Structures are given as structure tokens and as C-alpha cells.
């Protein structure tokens, strides 16, 4: 896979994540200089979870994000289409479900809140996935999308994209169990729409009150919305 096209083949992407699963959490921590932990905490806080609420963590990978969400006292389930990722997180004490983001195995309005972190850009149909998340969320329920964004400061943006092309693969070769996958991941970040465009797509999928908070000078953004 040489280009991160929007019509990504789901089987190829799942296989890629199976290949990086063994050292995925370590690689993320190294690549983000430990900021991944902060982003997980901010995602939990942005959801405003309350004890007893039901929460879907989609594209949860090894469920490290789900464990963070559970700190709120909410009931949280991790869902991912990579069996390798779910197996790598088997030791984490949260429920896990193998699931296709475009055909979630949950009833309408099943959750009080839903979230997806660094996974939306890897789904073959972004708009359908956002609509499917809306389907399984009750009216008035909340969505938070934590995803890479378009850096807002031009000099930093140039350095950042150069780093995606050169630095990210070099680090991945040292720490990842599948370094080639990070070439794809870097391309998927560069190809991803800027924050205003993603906000418009979230609104078009049935969500209201869409807004976002930039992190890391816009290299990451938290998009928040409410189910209409």
C-alpha cells in the first residue's frame, strides 16, 4: 500500500494494524513524546462522562483508550476491526468486540456517548462511519473524535509534514513491529481534511453543536458534537 487513498481497502488496513499491534502502544508513546497519554485524558474529559453511562470506544485498538475512559465510572466497550489489536490488549479488563465501523453490532441509541481516536481516517467511508456512530447514540448523546489535524501555524506545518515523511519512518524502524505501516500512516495524516472540513462532515452525518479544540498547534484536534 503506497498511498493513503480515501477508498482504503478494509482488509488491507486491518492486516496492517494486525502487524503493528505487538508494539503499537510503545510506538505511539515514543512518536508523540508521551503526549498520547494526555490526549486520552482530554478525550475522556471532553466526553463529560458520568458513572453508569454506556460508552462506545470505536477503533479502540489495544483498549488502552477504553481503560482511560473507564476511569470516569462509565461502562465502556472497546470495538475494533483488527483482531490482532484486540488480542494485544486482551489483558486489559474492559469488554471488547470485533466490529466493522460501517456496520456496528449494536442497537439504535445504545450508547450515551461514543468516541473514536486516531481511527476515523482509516475507515473506508468516513461519512458512513459518522452516521453509524450517530445511529447507535441516543438523542442528546455525545461524540468526541480525537484525530490528527491540519497544523494552524505555517512554519510548524512545514516542519511537521517533513517530519511525517522522514522522521516518523526512521523512528518506527527502531520501535515498531511493522515499520512499513508507518509510511502509510504518515500519508493518511497528510491526506486528512483540515478541522473545518471534518466539522462540516460530522454535522452532515446527523450531529449538532459541532466544535473542535486544537492540540499540539493543530496537529491533533478534538471534535465534539451532540446527537440531534
UniProtKB/TrEMBL annotation:
Reaction catalysed by this enzyme: a 2-demethylmenaquinol + S-adenosyl-L-methionine = a menaquinol + S-adenosyl-L-homocysteine + H(+)
EC number per UniProt: 2.1.1.163
Pathway per the UniProt entry: Quinol/quinone metabolism; menaquinone biosynthesis; menaquinol from 1,4-dihydroxy-2-naphthoate: step 2/2
Keyword set includes Methyltransferase: yes
Any Pfam family hit: Ubie_methyltran
Keyword list, A-Z: Menaquinone biosynthesis, Methyltransferase, S-adenosyl-L-methionine, Transferase
Residue sites binding S-adenosyl-L-methionine per the record: 62, 80, 100-101, 117
The UniProt record lists the keyword S-adenosyl-L-methionine: yes
One GO term of the biological process aspect: methylation
Example of a GO MF term: methyltransferase activity
NCBIfam families linked to this entry: MenG_MenH_UbiE, PRK00216.1-2
Family stated for the protein in its record: Belongs to the class I-like SAM-binding methyltransferase superfamily. MenG/UbiE family.
PANTHER family per UniProt: 2-METHOXY-6-POLYPRENYL-1,4-BENZOQUINOL METHYLASE, MITOCHONDRIAL (PTHR43591:SF24), METHYLTRANSFERASE (PTHR43591)
Described purpose of this protein according to its UniProt entry: Methyltransferase required for the conversion of demethylmenaquinol (DMKH2) to menaquinol (MKH2).
Protein name listed in UniProt: Demethylmenaquinone methyltransferase
Amino acid at each position: 500500500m503506497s498511498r493513503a487513498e480515501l477508498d482504503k481497502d478494509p482488509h488491507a488496513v486491518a492486516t496492517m494494524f494486525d502487524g503493528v499491534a505487538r508494539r503499537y502502544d510503545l510506538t505511539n508513546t515514543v512518536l508523540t513524546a508521551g503526549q498520547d497519554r494526555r490526549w486520552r485524558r482530554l478525550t475522556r474529559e471532553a466526553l463529560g462522562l458520568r458513572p453508569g453511562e454506556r460508552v462506545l470506544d470505536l477503533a479502540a485498538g489495544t483498549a488502552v483508550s477504553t481503560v482511560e475512559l473507564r476511569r470516569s465510572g462509565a461502562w465502556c466497550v472497546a470495538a475494533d476491526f483488527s483482531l490482532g489489536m484486540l488480542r494485544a490488549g486482551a489483558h486489559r479488563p474492559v469488554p471488547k468486540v470485533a466490529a466493522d465501523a460501517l456496520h456496528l453490532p449494536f442497537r439504535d441509541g445504545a450508547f450515551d456517548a461514543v468516541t473514536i481516536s486516531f481511527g476515523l481516517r482509516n475507515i473506508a467511508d468516513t461519512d458512513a462511519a459518522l452516521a453509524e456512530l450517530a445511529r447507535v447514540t441516543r438523542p442528546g448523546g455525545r461524540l468526541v473524535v480525537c484525530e490528527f489535524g491540519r497544523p494552524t501555524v505555517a512554519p510548524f506545518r512545514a516542519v511537521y509534514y517533513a517530519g511525517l515523511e522522514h522522521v516518523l519512518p526512521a523512528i518506527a524502524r527502531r520501535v515498531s513491529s511493522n515499520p512499513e505501516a508507518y509510511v502509510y500512516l504518515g500519508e493518511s495524516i497528510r491526506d486528512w481534511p483540515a478541522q473545518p472540513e471534518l466539522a462540516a462532515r460530522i454535522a452532515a452525518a446527523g450531529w449538532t453543536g459541532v466544535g473542535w479544540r486544537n492540540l499540539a498547534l493543530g496537529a491533533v484536534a478534538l471534535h465534539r458534537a451532540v446527537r440531534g
